[in-house]
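Hi V.,

Quick status before I head out on leave. The structure for the redesign project is tokenized and pasted below; the design run finished overnight.
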């Protein structure tokens, strides 16, 4: 029984990985269930046993993307720790996620699908945006504590995210540039923190 369950799980994972590869190569609309089944080396019937439709399979891919982001440990604001040190830890955590091959692959698939069918991924991308609220929550707490200037916390969070993603996410997702090495990640995170605090530190 256990062996059968493991085989089923392996087949499901093979289907998901095959779908990611096919969606990446051809886009959502041009990818067929036949192609996914062939790449996963399973029958079409087996695929449908796991996922009743291509949309269901795509939803599973987005769920995996969401869980990749949601699995990161929350780093709450601490009144007893230096602001710069906390911000750097937040950004290095984000850098680690943005440099993960699986996360980048899934993000490419989701973004490509969003361009052609925004409604298909809007809910999931909203959830991903809420996950990034960890930075927003930290900024609000630091403002409340008087260590960051009062103002639009949402705008501040977006600006901080942009300083990182403009170098360590969008070029990799949209232009196929290589992901950054750990040293480059830390340099960018340090520069982003310094620039952010030069304007927002109280």
């Amino acid at each position: 029984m256990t062996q059968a369950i493991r085989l089923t799980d392996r087949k499901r994972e093979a289907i998901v990985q095959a779908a990611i590869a096919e969606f990446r190569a051809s886009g959502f609309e041009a990818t067929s269930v036949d192609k996914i089944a062939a790449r996963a080396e399973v029958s079409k019937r087996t695929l449908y046993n796991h996922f009743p439709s291509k949309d269901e399979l795509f939803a599973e891919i987005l769920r995996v993307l969401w869980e990749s982001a949601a699995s990161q440990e929350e780093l709450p604001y601490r009144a007893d720790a230096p602001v710069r040190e906390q911000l750097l830890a937040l950004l290095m955590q984000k850098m680690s996620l943005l440099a993960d091959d699986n996360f980048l692959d899934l993000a490419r698939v989701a973004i490509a699908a969003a361009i052609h069918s925004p409604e298909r991924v809007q809910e999931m991308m909203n959830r991903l945006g809420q996950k990034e609220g960890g930075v927003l929550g930290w900024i609000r707490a630091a403002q409340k504590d008087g260590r960051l200037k009062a103002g639009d916390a949402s705008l501040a969070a977006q600006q901080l995210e942009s300083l990182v993603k403009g170098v360590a996410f969008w070029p990799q997702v949209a232009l196929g540039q290589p992901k950054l090495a750990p040293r480059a990640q830390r340099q960018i995170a340090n520069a982003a923190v310094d620039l952010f605090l030069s304007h927002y530190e109280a």
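Above is the designed sequence. Residues 64-200 form a domain with the Tetracycline Repressor; domain 2 fold (CATH 1.10.357.10).

G. will cover questions while I'm gone.

Best,
W.
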